[in-house]
Amino acid sequence: xxxxxxxxxxxxxxxxxxxxxxxxxxxxxxxxxxxxxxxxxxxxxxxxxxxxxxxxxxxxxxxxxxxxxxxxxxxxxxxxxxxxxxxxxxxxxxxxxxxxxxxxxxxxxxxxxxxxxxxxxxxxxxxxxxxxxxxxxxxxxxxxxxxxxxxxxxxxxxxxxx
Length: 162
Ligand SMILES: CC(C)(COP(=O)(O)OP(=O)(O)OC[C@H]1O[C@@H](n2cnc3c(N)ncnc32)[C@H](O)[C@@H]1OP(=O)(O)O)[C@@H](O)C(=O)NCCC(=O)NCCS
What we know:
Blueprint: E1 2-5, H1 11-25, H2 32-40, H3 44-53, E2 56-61, E3 64-75, E4 78-86, H4 95-110, E5 116-121, H5 124-133, E6 137-146, E7 149-159
Parallel strand pairs: 4-5
Antiparallel strand pairs: 1-2, 2-3, 3-4, 5-7, 6-7
Helix pairs in contact: 1-3
The structure holds coenzyme A (COA).
The site of coenzyme A (COA) has 18 residues, from helix 1, strand 4, helix 4 and helix 5.
């Protein structure tokens, strides 16, 4: 497994990875309307734009893209794991945990004042167990907004050594 920076050619793969997760995994927890808004909120060009605005990483294995994640600085001491998506055919193999470890190392080298990593999930039944296993704790309810459509979300936080 290799982690590298996003390149514009990766946008289509990111779009597919995220769309597949919504369509195949999240339908138990979200309405069809929620899914439509959330999927349509990020088209391939949006990933190219995001990669100019924030650190954006691609996970590869044998030259195949198997995941991506990106980070947003919320304030001096807080960063948000804005998106993390692992290919559905490679789930449960430790790749998500390895991405979290990479994020923590990256933060300690690049955003040294960041002491808290947060994540907001609109599908907590599906993935909050993963976040708890890698050290996050739920800190409250919130909303995520996609094209003006609000979806209830859970915010989780992990304290980092800094
Ligand atoms: C959530 C996600 C990133 C986890 O990645 P992963 O590579 O499958 O996770 P790992 O293999 O590193 O799992 C780490 C631990 O969490 C557990 N875990 C992972 N996903 C889980 C799930 N959906 N439900 C319950 N436990 C889960 C694993 O069993 C493992 O436990 P262990 O340490 O006791 O063996 C991945 O499932 C994913 O990309 N899902 C679709 C998109 C998504 O939900 N993104 C987040 C949007 S907010």
